[in-house]
Amino acid sequence: MNRSVTAALAGIAVGFATSPADGQTLVPSSSDRFAWTESAGLLNLRPDSEDPDAGVAVFVTHMRGFAWSEGFGWVSFGRGPANGEAYGNTVGEDFGVNVLSDGRLEGFAWIESAGWINVGPLANDEVPAARIDYDALRLRGWAWGQAIGWVNLDDDEVFIALTPTCPPDINFDGAVTPGDFNAWLIAFHRGSAICDQNGDGVCTPGDFNAWVLNYGAGC
Questions:
Q1: In whole angstroms, what is the distance from residue 130 CA to residue 123 CA?
Q2: What is d(CA 177, CA 22) in angstroms, rounded to the nearest whole number?
């Protein structure tokens, strides 16, 4: 990468509109971090870069940060909503991808050399909507860019897995509270990925003790 994020997007307002919130954030895993685009190759949501703005993070209500496309350069998913909650997507200084309460993704990403990517809602309602699969902790669905075509978030082999930065926040509300105990029980019975609190790759009763320890440590 020859250009920094700031240099690449010099024409767009720089600096986060708000500071990253405390509590839960989901970040792409170091191994599964790619989406396939129709005409731009792989889109890397966790690029190897020393630039502090590189990489896309999923907050409770929105996404922010920069992915990297070898074909088109930096892709902005937003720099933080002006109101601290959700992007308005009506002016250039307040665009990005929002996370709805049911996990669906809506809004726009921007590529400096290829224009907008519509993450949702899509005009074609037969195409699976882009969303966060909280059970599997990964992205799913499709997005569309006029210049790059379809962006596939739903491939079985090339996909974006998400890692919680605050494991005990099981219900993804941005805070560690007693309500997360009930959320862990539900996750355990569903076999959801967030149930795995000790990092052994499986969901077992032993993860409850791990959750208690994580809860005590906080985030």
A1: 13
A2: 13
User: How far apart, in Å, do the first and last CA atoms of the chain sit?
Assistant: 32
Over range 118-139, report the average pLDDT: 95
Convert the pLDDT of each residue in 108-125 to its tens digit. Answer: 999 988 999 999 999 888
User: Cβ neighbours of residue 76 under 8 Å, at least 6 residues apart?
Assistant: 9, 12, 65, 66, 96, 109, 110, 111
Q: Residue 152 and residue 52: Cα distance in Å, rounded?
A: 26
* Cβ atoms of residues 207 and 192 within 8 Å: no
Q: Is 82 left (phi over 0), alpha (psi -120 to 50) or beta?
A: alpha
pTM summary value: 0.85
pLDDT in tens, 185-204: 999 999 999 999 999 999 99
Which segments of 10-166 does DSSP mark as H helices, in order?
none
**Contact present, 105 and 119 (Cβ < 8 Å):** yes
